[in-house]
Amino acid sequence: MPLKRIRPAKLGATLLFCLAHASLLAGVASPRVDSIKSLISKQLTAQQPADTVTINRINKLAADYFQSNPDSAFYYGKKGVELSRKIHYDQGIAIGLLQTGHVNYFKGRSEMAQHDFDEAITIFKRLKNYKGLSASYVSLGRMYTLLADYKQALFYLNEALKINTKINDEKALADNFKNIGVVYYSQGELSKALDFYYKGLFIAVKNRYNGPSAELYNDIGLVLQNMEVYPRALDYYQKALTLFKGTKNYQAIATVNENIGEVLLAQHEYNKAIVYLTKSLAVAKSQGDIDGLCSLYTDLGLCYANQHQDTKAIRYLDTALQISSKYKYVFNQAYALIGLSTAYNLQKKYADAYQHAMAGQALAIKLGNLQVRANAALQLSKTLAGLGRFGEAYAYLNQYNDLKATLKANESIQKLTSFNYELEFATKEHQLQEEQREQNLLYQQKISGQRSLNIIFGVIILAMVVILLSYYRQKRTQQKINAKLAEKNSEVLQQKVSLDEQTYKLNDLNKLKDRLISILAHDLRAPLSTLRGMFDLLQDDTISHQEMLDMIPSVLKKLEYTSDFLDTLLFWINSQMETFVSSVTTFSVTDVVRYEVESHLDAAMQKGVTLTDYVPQGLIASADPNSIRIVIRNLITNAIKFTGKGDTIEVRAATGEDGMVTVIVKDTGVGMSPEQADRLFKSKVDSKTGTNNELGTGMGLLFCKDLVEKCNGTIRVSSQPGIGTEFLFTIPVHALPAESQKVA
């Protein structure tokens, strides 16, 4: 599997919205770029004294040029600062510094950019220019994101957020949320990144901001790409390209092409990937985009490495490493180092691969980024296996699987689905509101026309009786129109009610689908990846027969867990089908509990836990025995998971006066807070690791609740941290026939 990078998206090239609106900061209009350029050239050639209007136009020209020609943007920004200093025009100085600072960090000149932004901030504070101050903070936040100093980046971006919220600048807020999302995305915190991306997207869609919407579609596509949901990622990239089509935002188009190229690289379509990456590389070279050059050289190097063009691949990867090291772009350094280890592993030069993989892992740990750490762990596993260090290779393979499982957390998938539904519903609601507004406007226009006619007819009726008949007919016609409008309004309202009902039904179905997909993606991937990794080692003849035998117990343990989980999951899925018929019958609660307790005694003994059965003989209930067996199994497994050495687990059962059998599973384990207990039987998945770091899906208790309720029972929990947990559920007791009771 090819290495995938995580780095900040470059679509902030629209000058952070505030920069793109430099004319607003300067208080001038926005004529065409060519006209401004011609006018400024004439004034400078004639050596006329600089004035504020000319300086504002120069700064506006710098902002407009950034998307297509950063060098020209820098030239005009510098010229604006120079002329402003001559006439002591502070606002012109600050706005010009904002332009030069943005180009400086875009070109990798971070220290010069910091100097420009600091001076601009000082001036904007003195002038109380909040738009300019916000733009400066956002620029600094993006620069520190690129330098992987996320704490500093979030500081500046949150300062900007306070200002934009205070002045209620929605366009700047959308961009602000996007850039905060980029920081969390760069740290591998995909769930938080999605929160901020969709906050920005809701604002952009509501206000029809096409540019910001395109940038956010691209960023959400990167999250999907990171989760390896490649078809959906490509859909979002195509949405972004559609919105950018016809613009001169070459940087944005090049970035989306690069992202598409990386998806094709991950899908092993190397020739197609090279086409997209080469297009993007041409733009990055023409604009001096250091960040883009680093990542594109690495991407192309990986393509050629997988095509076994070894010399070409190493040349591209070495170039990426040299550039990123020179400008101290930590993300790109790690990406290039792991790319080199990938290339050397493909060439079976394991010593060289090991050197670069270790260096890449060191940077990954420094970044704290889960995706980069996962990629480094995968290459180290392959390298160590090639060097014959199989124990270490297996450890890194497990580390890779754990990191990938964490990255593909259910929370991210659920949030993505939830946000999509909210966005689609908001868009449809906005469309309905627009249609309603248009109808109301038409109605008002009709009413206004009618009033005019009434006045005219009122005057003419005194002289002409014939006009009275015309007026009468017109009045009747208008009444019919009003009736039709009323009918249309009623139809629209009915359609909205119907749409709401369909939306709720669709949400229920999709929630069930998303639960199943997230569970399968989380719990089946790790054991299958481990098994595949072991077979890869066997295929390469890199491990001995004895080493394979040593690995088999741990693999079998994971497969056994997966098999049990699949049995439970398939039974629960079947219970959700409309055609499912519950097999309610009379069965022995004593036998069911005893079987499950005996089945879990070994697991309890391995953790030093005492598991005891206190269910009396002859306890009979009326329910679906398979459902109750699954519930008891899940509760015992859950109890073992959260207990440790010296703890006890008791399973009790008794018949109550209410005609119900009560089953209790009580442990003296770690317990939980009231807030955690309250969330157990709700739809939100919130699984914790066990006392021995055992993994779980977070769905078992939801299954239990569903199955118990289908058996006409109830389930509840009580727990205290550090004391233990008690699960209690009830099912109907077996009622003896009347004749049997008389005999007794």
Question: What is the overall pLDDT average?
Answer: 80
- Percent helix: over 70%
The helix count comes to 30
**Distance N terminus to C terminus?**
71 Å
Shape: flat
| Uncertain segments | 1-32, 736-744
Biggest sheet descriptor = 5 strands, mixed
Strand line-up across the major sheet: 2-4-5-7-6
C-alpha Rg, in Å? 34 Å
Proportion of residues in β-strands: 5-15%
Total strand segments: 7
Q: What structural class results from the helix and strand content?
A: alpha+beta
Please provide a written account of the structure.
Residues 1-26 form the signal peptide. The chain crosses the membrane at residues 453-472. This is histidine kinase. One of its GO terms (molecular function) is phosphorelay sensor kinase activity. By secondary structure, this protein is an alpha+beta fold. Among the domains are: 249-404, Tetratricopeptide repeat domain (Serine Threonine Protein Phosphatase 5, Tetratricopeptide repeat, Alpha Horseshoe), CATH 1.25.40; 409-578, no CATH class; 585-739, Histidine kinase-like ATPase, C-terminal domain (Heat Shock Protein 90). The chain contains 30 helices and seven strands.
